[in-house]
Write a structure and sequence with these properties.
heterodimer, A: 980 residues, alpha+beta, nine-stranded mixed sheet, eight-stranded mixed sheet, 33 helices, elongated, B: 285 residues, five-stranded mixed sheet, ATP binding (chain A), transmembrane (chain A)
Chain lengths: 980, 285
């Protein structure tokens, strides 16, 4: 289907080409005509990827997760209200209120989740807002600066080096124009552009410049042929946005959790519905029990808590330069098992730096760190003095003025990458290069060109006693050597014999083998008698010697790895994450960088390395022995997916070199076939399919294109690989902490559920009301659950393997069973003891309570006898029942404090790990409970009563029991790790 | 974002499930070996036994600490509730309707009263003593048999015309029905602060017409010697004193709302939430 689309594209472009020739460039469009076309075609801007309408997002929050269960509860409440109303019962409004409260809970938590989601989306939106682009347009015969989105088809625009192309443009005039199409086609070399129609395919022809690419140099004038979404890039963007987002691992985990809890809720609910019906409860009562069971089982506040925890982590990550677009991506990073990383800019500093020097027959290494201020190598040799002079003088790069206060490495330089590297290198060592150049006045210069492959300049020297001119030359080492007859050793010129030439070759090979770009340097002092002060140098006729020079040394440059990267890579390795480098660079450079950052570790070898070591042909090497592999993009092209799988499986250290952005997608798919959770970094437009395909796409904030940022789930603000590792750590931490939060939240469900079950079976007065349960779930428990998100890692977080997404679930059976069947049961016992204590001390001994439900709840019985013979009206009983609710509530709260303390850590003892936020949790929990009981104790609708103070302590022994029990469990876990 | 779940067919899922239940290769039953399951079951058994033990122990301790004669607190029994016999409840409280000429409509009401009064026959009251003092009947010691306290006798004949003895139909056929008002027992509660509390019935919402009532015993008082109540264990044969009211001038075929209050110090009858605390409201036609 896509090929047909491409054909159509070509077709329309060719037609357009014919049509263009009729347009007269001089006056351009008239403003009126332009306005007309603008009205027809719309502004020249990409429509942002079609976002889900806000209302749909909102509704999704309203029915997602547990909400549907609560809606069912609410509807049941209303139905039973309706029935009771129709039957003329005495107090049907209780059920109406309950329904309203349930609906409110759903709506409020929905609004909250929606708000959180919207907030994190907004961060992204503000980030992607770009400064409005301007374009130079000819309209009504005048040149005008217009915002680029006002451009219409037929406009004449002028562009120059440095501009972003404002629309798809058919060039009608071009001078030395080169465009950088890398973001569109992945070609890293700038492409030249002219007016000639060279190819049917619009992507190939030289006379079209594309929207959003940049003009690197030269100038051009062109006619706008397509705007906005109709541009090539607009079409690509709309294609990628068509790819639907799949669920994140954490979304799957939460869904799994919701299913689990909902399953438990519904099955217990239905089971007890059947039980209560068969126990001859009225259907209406049974329905009300069902609502209670559902409300008790559903952790209403949990999903909101999860959202808050995730957004807290997202905030923390944003501080560490990881901007998370999608909250759930926070955790995805934690479960990542493979990172496919770009080289340039992510692993490296994205600037050429001098890495090695060779003079006096010796290789010296230079400091390549980001913030170098001195160079440590031996600078005493006179050869270095000579070499440094050449480096300084034979260089056209200059600092942009006005940056004296900036560190040298941060200054902006006008000049190409290698010259910049040399200039900065010289500036660091010698200081004030511009002054040195001024003292050694340049009298002639031949700039570098691709035929000569050298650069030459002639200078007066700064030594007033020396009247000679100094000729300095740099260029491709072999070309430079050809022109030399001597070589400088320790400041003395010595003849260049074959032995010295051999030494040069060895050094050249060695530096080249490290993937570095090598330059040779030579000089010659022109004899004073032949070239007097007044001699006029002519660079065209070359009236000066360019051979028999004196070779001084070699300098090699590389885009060095960021200093934080090796550490980050080794962290990834110990965290069980495979780092794969995918780059468009030459395999040798790629391998050298991979080695220097540790993607290929020092001891591992590729097939080629083994072949070289054993001196056998590559084909004879058993490739299973090689742990590392460098795969060339050309090889990758011919590989079947099985072959790729084999490579991915069998080598732990892989570098893909000379790959096109499209091949990135193939690599990502290959990794995903192995069951890996893949993180991909990328910056170009063409990376966006890979970014989308990846489990987590990471776009570069500085170098990244908008399309890449759109497709990504996360943006690295500093383009630094090390930030990914921070992200992984945070992601794993939040997964662990969410586990704790969920365990904490699930535990009390049993203590909320048991009352209903025992109420139905033993017919005791209801121990805790539905509304009271909501006050626990959405009141006292919320802040402690969030506080668990602040829990620090338990020592080994980055030393364990990434979680296996099929086995290590967020909520597994052990967690659920431990929470439900052990701690939850203990909590229930504690709460029931409080309940019975309250009733007994007020006159109803436990034995009296069994089986009283029907009479207890009968409005007509106003002289209900207690264990002491006293008689109670209905209201007095109800008030006692509310006191029971309050007592039950208080004892769950007290025991939840213990639960919070035990959930803080999963292995470590409470004495081994502190967390101040937990205190906030504990105090808030108790504080809210105090406010509810004593502050709101007189508001009858809330069913709280001011509880006698001693009842707060009935559950304390049980809280201590829970804590001791869990400490013992943790002790066993630490003593006998690994056992089930 | 990539798909994490491959789609499985139903039969594959079933197969997976069967394999989970019993895996012949690893000899795992539901993910564990059988012996492992036994250990886990034993652990849980022990755990629940211990938890039940702890629960039982707690309840035992609780029972040891509570006073067998009177509850530790009476937080919710500040004032006694008042109830009415016969007690026929509609959706808005007590509602009594009957047709004078149709004895089926009031038979039930009469039976209710008669059944209620069986607890007040001399035979039922033979354990109780006759009290004559019109003061509170304080007992600091256990003077009764089997370490109990004495209770005062209340027999139905004290209700005279409404006792069901002279008029077994309680005046229903004449349209002058009797109702019996009972005040709830509260341990150690002393109503009236030395003066006997008294029942007073009036129309509600229609102050113009006066309700003529005969009260039995005279003045509709609860004699003070029935108070204080010492609890079921101390006074096993205690029975509440009663007041009968006979409405003499009820207009027929009109709905009346009649409020009977017990008036006396310490008896609250204006709690908006509790319609039966210190009062009872009756709709009558």
């Amino acid at each position: 289907r896509s090929s047909r689309k491409a054909f159509k594209l070509t077709h329309s472009y060719v037609e357009m080409h014919e049509f263009m020739l009729q347009i007269k460039p001089k006056p351009g469009l008239s403003s009126a005509k332009a306005a007309q076309v603008l009205a027809r075609d719309g502004p020249n801007a990409l429509t942002p990827p079609k976002a889900t309408p806000e209302i749909v997002k909102f509704l999704k929050q309203m029915i997602g997760g547990f909400s549907i269960l609560l809606w069912i509860g609410a509807v049941f409440s209303w139905i039973s209200f309706g029935i009771q109303l129709a039957q003329g019962a005495e107090s049907p409004f209780d059920n109406l209120y309950l329904g309203v409260v349930l609906a409110l809970v759903v709506i409020l938590t929905g609004i909250f989740a929606y708000y959180q989601e919207a907030k994190s989306t907004n961060i992204m939106a503000s980030f992607s807002k770009m400064i409005p682009q301007q374009a130079l347009v000819i309209r009504d015969g005048e040149k005008k600066e217009l915002p680029a989105d006002q451009l219409v088809v037929g406009d004449i625009v002028e562009i120059k080096g440095g501009d972003r192309i404002p629309a798809d443009i058919r060039l009608i005039f071009a001078q030395g124009c080169k465009v950088d199409n890398s973001s569109l086609t992945g070609e890293s070399e700038p492409q030249s552009r002219s007016c000639d129609f060279t190819h049917e395919n619009p992507l190939e022809t030289k006379n079209i410049a594309f929207y959003s690419t940049t003009c690197v140099e030269g100038t051009a004038t062109g006619i706008v042929i397509n705007t906005g979404d109709r541009t090539i890039i607009g079409r690509i963007a709309s294609l990628t946005s068509g790819v639907g987002n799949e669920k994140t691992p954490i979304a799957i985990e939460i869904e799994h959790f919701v299913y689990l809890v909902a399953g438990v809720a519904i099955s217990i609910g239905v089971l007890f519905f059947i039980i209560s019906v068969s126990m001859r409860y009225k259907i209406l009562d049974s329905i009300i029990f069902l609502i209670g069971i559902i409300v008790a089982n559903v952790p209403e506040g949990l999903l909101a808590t999860v959202t808050v925890s995730l957004s807290l982590t997202a905030k923390r990550m944003a501080k560490k330069n990881c901007l998370v677009k999608n909250l759930e991506a926070v955790e995805t990073l934690g479960s990542t098992s493979v990172i496919c990383s770009d080289k340039t800019g992510t692993l490296t500093q994205n600037r050429m730096t001098v890495a090695h020097l060779w003079f006096d027959n010796q290789i010296y290494s230079a400091d390549t760190s980001e913030d170098q201020t001195t160079q440590p190598f031996d600078q005493s040799s006179p050869s270095w003095t000579a070499l440094s002079k050449i480096v300084t003088l034979c260089n056209r790069a200059e600092f942009r003025p006005g940056q004296e206060n900036l560190p040298i490495m941060k200054r902006v330089v006008v000049g190409d990458a290698s010259e910049t590297a040399l200039l900065k290198f010289a500036e660091v060592i010698l200081g004030d290069v511009m002054n040195i150049r001024a003292q050694n006045k340049k009298v002639a210069e031949i700039p570098f060109n691709s035929t000569n492959k050298f650069q030459l300049s002639i200078h007066k020297t700064d030594d007033p006693n020396d009247e000679r001119f100094l000729l300095v030359m740099k260029g491709a080492p072999e070309r430079i050597l050809e022109r030399c007859s001597t070589i400088m050793i320790n400041g003395k010129e010595e003849p260049l014999d074959s032995e010295k030439a051999e030494a040069f070759q060895t050094a050249y090979m060695e530096l080249g083998g490290m993937g570095e770009r090598v330059l040779g340097f030579c000089h010659l002092y022109l004899p004073e008698n032949e070239f007097p002060d007044t001699y006029s140098f002519d660079t065209d006729s070359m009236n000066f010697p360019t051979s028999n020079l004196c070779f001084v040394g070699l300098l090699s440059m590389i885009d060095p790895p960021r200093s934080t990267v090796p550490d980050a890579v080794s962290k990834c390795r110990s965290a069980g994450i495979k780092v794969i480098m995918v780059t468009g660079d030459h395999p040798i450079t790629a391998k050298a960088i991979a080695k220097s950052v540790g993607i290929i570790s020092a001891t591992s070898e590729t097939v080629e390395d083994i072949a070289k070591r054993l001196n056998i042909p590559v084909e004879q090497v058993n490739w299973r022995e090689a742990t590392a592999a460098v795969v060339n993009g050309m090889e990758l092209k011919d590989m079947s997916s099985q072959q790729l799988d084999e490579i991915l499986c069998n080598h732990s250290e892989i570098v893909f070199a000379r790959t096109s952005p499209q091949q990135k997608l193939i690599i990502v798919e290959g990794c995903q076939r192995q069951g890996a959770v893949v993180a991909v970094t990328g910056d170009g437009v063409n990376d966006s399919p890979a970014l989308k395909k990846a489990d987590i796409g990471i776009a570069m904030g500085i170098a990244g294109s908008d399309a890449a940022k759109n497709a990504a789930d996360m943006v690295l603000l500093d383009d630094n690989f090390a930030s990914i590792v921070t992200g992984v750590e945070e992601g794993r931490l939040i997964f662990d902490n969410l586990k704790k939060t969920i365990a904490y939240t699930l535990t009390k469900n049993i203590a909320e559920l048991c009352p209903f079950l025992i109420y139905i079976i033993a017919s005791i007065p209801l121990p805790i009301g539905t509304i009271t349960i909501l006050f626990i779930d959405l009141g006292t428990d919320i802040i402690p659950s969030v506080a668990l998100a602040y829990e620090k890692a338990e020592s080994d977080i980055m030393n364990r393997r990434p979680r296996n997404k099929r086995k290590d679930r967020l909520v597994n059976e052990q967690l659920a069973i431990y929470s439900y069947l052990q701690i939850g049961i203990m909590q229930s016992v504690g709460a029931f003891v409080t309940y019975f204590t309250v009733y007994a001390e007020q006159g109803f001994l436990p034995s009296t309570l069994l089986g009283v439900r029907v009479n207890w709840e009968n409005n007509a019985i106003n002289d209900f006898e207690d264990s002491y013979g006293q008689e109670w009206t209905k209201y007095q009983r109800t008030y006692l029942q509310w006191t029971g609710y309050t007592a039950f509530f208080v004892s769950i709260t007290i025991q939840q404090v213990a639960d919070l303390i035990i959930r803080k850590t999963r292995r470590n003892s409470i004495f081994q790990q502190g967390n101040k936020v937990i205190w906030v949790g504990i105090f808030s929990q108790i504080g809210i409970a105090l406010i509810l009981t004593y502050g709101l104790g007189h508001v009858t609708a809330l069913n709280f009563t001011p509880l006698r103070f001693q009842y707060w302590f009935v559950a304390v022994p049980f809280a201590i029991l829970i804590w001791v029990y869990d400490e013992v469990r943790k002790l066993f876990i630490r003593r006998y790790p690994g056992s089930k | 974002m990539a798909t994490l779940k491959e789609k499985k067919t139903c039969s594959e899922r079933m197969e997976d499930f069967r394999r989970f239940v019993w895996n012949p290769e690893t000899k795992l039953f539901m993910g564990r070996t059988l012996i492992n399951w036994v250990w886990i079951s034993l652990y849980y058994l022990a755990f629940y036994v211990v938890m039940s033990g702890i629960f039982a122990l707690s309840i035992y301790c609780l029972m040891r600490t509570v006073n067998p004669y009177e509850p530790d607190y009476q937080d919710h029994l500040k004032s006694p509730g008042v109830t009415l016999r016969p007690d026929v409840y509609g959706s808005r409280g007590l509602q009594i309707y009957y047709n004078i000429s149709d004895n089926k409509t009031w038979d039930g009401l009469v039976t209710t009263l008669q059944t209620f009064l069986t607890a007040y026959t001399p035979a039922a009251q033979h354990l109780n003593i006759n009290c004559t003092n019109d003061t509170y009947f304080f007992q600091d010691t256990f003077d009764g048999p089997n370490k109990t306290k004495l209770s005062c006798k209340f027999t139905s004949d004290m209700l005279q015309n409404c006792s069901g003895i002279t008029d077994p139909t309680f005046g229903f056929p004449e349209g002058k029905p009797c109702f019996i008002i009972k005040m709830n027992r509260i341990i150690n509660f002393l109503p009236g602060n030395g003066t006997a509390p008294r029942v007073n019935c009036t129309y509600v919402g229609d102050e113009s017409s006066l309700l003529e009532v005969d009260y039995y015993p005279v003045n509709g008082t609860f004699n003070l010697h029935y108070f204080p109540y010492y609890g079921k264990k101390a006074q096993p044969s205690y029975s509440n004193p009663l007041v009968a009211v006979k409405f003499l001038n009820i207009t027929r075929n009109v709905e009346h709302r009649i409020l009977c209050k017990v008036i006396g110090a310490g008896i609250i009858s204006d709690n908006v939430y509790d319609p039966y605390e210190g009062r009872t409201l009756l709709k009558n036609t």
